[in-house]
Structure formats: C-alpha cells, structure tokens
Amino acid sequence: MHSSPPAVCPHVEWALGRVLDAPVDLDWSVQPASPAAWRADCAWVGPPGTGGRIAAALQKWQMLRFEVTEDPSPGVDGERIMFVPGRGVYRAATSANGDLMIAEDRIRALLATCRDPDSLRHGLNRLLGTEWDAELEPYRHYGEDAGQNWLSQVS
Questions:
Q1: Distance between CA atoms of residues 97 and 72, nearest Å
Q2: What residue numbers bound the domain in which 132 lies?
Q3: Which helix (H) or strand (E) is 67 found in, with range?
C-alpha cells in the first residue's frame, strides 16, 4: 500500500483480511511523498488469483495508491496490478523473473492502429503501464527501509 488516508487504513486491513480469511494488522507509517497519507508493505501467500482478489477489494477506495504482485506458480503466470487515483487500474502478466509479458494479440492490435512512431511509442507505454509506474515511483522509494508484514492463507 503506497498511500492511504489514515481513516481508511483499518478498512484496508479488513478488506485484506476478508480476502485472505485471516486477521490483518499492518505496520503503517507516514508516507513521506504525501505526508497526509500512510503506507504499509506486506507479503502474502495464497492460491493463484489471490492478487486479483486483493486488488479488487482495494479498488473500492479510489483515493488509494497500491501495487499487488503475485508470483508465478506451476502452470500459472504471475501478475502485477497497479492502482493510481484518477488513472485506475493497470494489470499485466509477469514472467518468472518479474518482467511484464504483453500478449502478441495486443501488440498486433497496436501495430495495426499506429499511424506514426509517436503513436507506437504512446501505445507501447500504455501497454507497459509507464504512466502508472511514473506516478508510483516517488511512493515506492520510501518503502525501501520500511518493515514488511507477511500475510498468508492456508489453502
């Protein structure tokens, strides 16, 4: 969680707890990139698709900034989900090493609609979530020294 108003933090924990079917108590701290907001890091364990359910639960609060990363598992690609107020959600599959994977049909559709190099550049940036990354980067920096909570769900 990159940023949340303090009053929403308990709701974030309750939403995570509902998805993970376990109580969640995050270690919140002030977000220096936005001092009126709080931030928290956590790692979680759950069956494939849990990351999508976490993101869906958190999207109810449109003022949040967050990322959810689900590592790949046997037979299932990983996933990266980012949410930024006013921009909405960005979602992409990830490879075993964490790189974004853009499906060939999406690239073919982009190539079929591009009329010049600028439209291709803009389209590739959209497919890669560049605008979400740019908006979240100042918030990520402050998480490097923060503690991390581990959340798990027994399947």
A1: 9
A2: 6-149
A3: strand 66-70
- Write the pLDDT tens digit of every residue in 91-103: 999 998 889 999 9
CA-nearest of 39, 50, 60 to 17 is: 50
Give the pair of three-digit tokens for residue 25.
């108590």
* 1 falls within a domain: no
Residues of the chain with pLDDT under 70: 142-155
Please check whether residue 120 is in contact with residue 111, taking contact to mean a CB–CB distance below 8 angstroms: yes
Is residue 94 in a domain? yes
Give domain status of residue 155, yes or no: no
Nearest to 26 by CA among 153, 155, 146: 146
Give the span between the Cα atoms of 104 and 127, in whole angstroms: 11
**pLDDT score at 66:** 98
Report pTM.
Answer: 0.86
- Domains: count for the chain: 1
CA 114, 109, 121 angle in degrees (round to 5)? 40
Q: Per the domain annotation, does 15 fall within a domain?
A: yes
